[in-house]
Model the fold of this input.
Amino acid sequence: MNCRTFCIGDDFRYEEAIGDDGVFNKFYEIVNPGSKSLIAIPDGCIDIQFAYRNGICKAFLAGSLSKGRETVTGTYDRCFGIKLNAGLAPEHLTQSVGNIVDKRVPLSDHTWAAKLERALAEGSSLSRKTMIFLDIYRDVRNWKKHLITDYIVHEVWERRGYVKVASLVEKTGYAHCYVDRVFKTQTGMSVKKYAEIVRVQNAIHDLYANDSGSPCMGGIYMDLGYYDQPHFIHDFKMHTTFTPTYIKAHNNVTIV
Done:
């Protein structure tokens, strides 16, 4: 599923292209000429970002957030981003994925990143930036991944985040502590935390899939296995900083 990562206002310009090769979830560009506040939300994925300020491009590696909050991405004029699918991390990452959860790490000391900073002209289109990125980055496209992580990510998404973690882990045939350690090495978070993120991601999708004016919260929280509506609203607000009712009622805020 297309992960949603940012809450943006109507004065932003946003464009995305969905990935289709099993590695990239999507490519996106945020244009923010007024340097307005930007809320980022957890999605369990790593992003490679090229942020522009006053015509100068800087490369970063951005880990998933653990809860919704304001991000420094909003302090840039625009941002071209490449979102990896959950469970994938660049092989050239010199630190554990856990160390970049809730953080952005500069990449300019990597030769390929510095080359891309020079090549990704600010005025080019999203499709052109994507082609340039893939052309230069393909030589270093090696990934840290593990079969256990692939299995967990797939199963959690198949069940829309509504899973009994102990039962899911048991099906791998390995001890819970080992599975959690492998998964955390790959994603920076526990299986339980990842399932919580996926459940809210699906709640966001369901909210926008409902074309009526009502947020239809009853159907959403029951389908996703929340205990009750207050529990659902609490988790939704923790991840997005907004309530479902607010998102549905205000067209000036969109989750992309």
